[in-house]
Amino acid sequence: MPDIEEVLPKYQQISGYIRDQIERGELAPGAEVPSERELAVAWKVARPTAAKALNTLRQQGLVESRRGSGTFVRGPDAVPLVRESVGRARQYGAMYAEREPVDILAAELVDGPDYVTDALGLVAGSEVIARRRLVTGDNGDAELSTSWFPGDLAGVADRLLDIKRLPGGTAMYLEAVTGRRVASVFDEVSARLATSEERKRLRLARTSAVLVYRLTALDSDGAALQFDEGIYPPESWVFRQEYSVRGA
């Protein structure tokens, strides 16, 4: 059991640890989660702190309590799929689980939109590689996702132009063929009205807002290696981050 750190409240550290076990599959659907008493002993915290950690997991939809039995991991179809800016982004190259149906709509060289070339640090109008995907969750929710790369990578990373999933993800592939690896990421979230294509792909009403999630991956020299853009329908996906607040 890891030592308690002072960066986050103790209950968040405990819930985060259990959440990681669930996401990695170490605690499978239906598995029993340690009780309040067991967590209090293992982590050397008070019972109310352990109870708060379990309640956090319940609020996130990851576990459920059964009267007289304990607390158990919920099944994957019972938990809305979550694209979290910290969790998935920091596990770069594993943005989508193997069980998630991913349809790669296109993988091609195109003239980069201004916001894409700007994010990649390229001259306006430069060619870029675009890998467009439609991801469908277990509960029927969908996501449109595009990964953009500098066009000059086409010569050394030609599989980016192949309409197939890359085992391990694009980050692992790029590291293998270029020697460059993702050292840091930053992201931003905004909202806007859906385009006609987005409405069609995501089966939205004629006038619908969408959530736009953008993530830029930088190598160790600070050069942009990849720019990702996810489009999400309203009320279907959740972004959640937790922070410690000094003086609270």
UniProtKB/TrEMBL annotation:
SUPFAM superfamilies per record: Chorismate lyase-like, Winged helix' DNA-binding domain
Protein keywords: DNA-binding, Transcription, Transcription regulation
InterPro entries per record: Bact_HTH_transcr_reg, Chorismate_lyase_/UTRA_dom_sf, Tscrpt_reg_HTH_GntR, UTRA, WH-like_DNA-bd_sf, WH_DNA-bd_sf
A Pfam family assignment: GntR
Source species, domain of life: Bacteria
Residue span, HTH gntR-type domain: 8-76
TM stretches of this protein: none
Protein name: GntR family transcriptional regulator
Organism taxonomic ancestry: Bacteria, Bacillati, Actinomycetota, Actinomycetes, Mycobacteriales
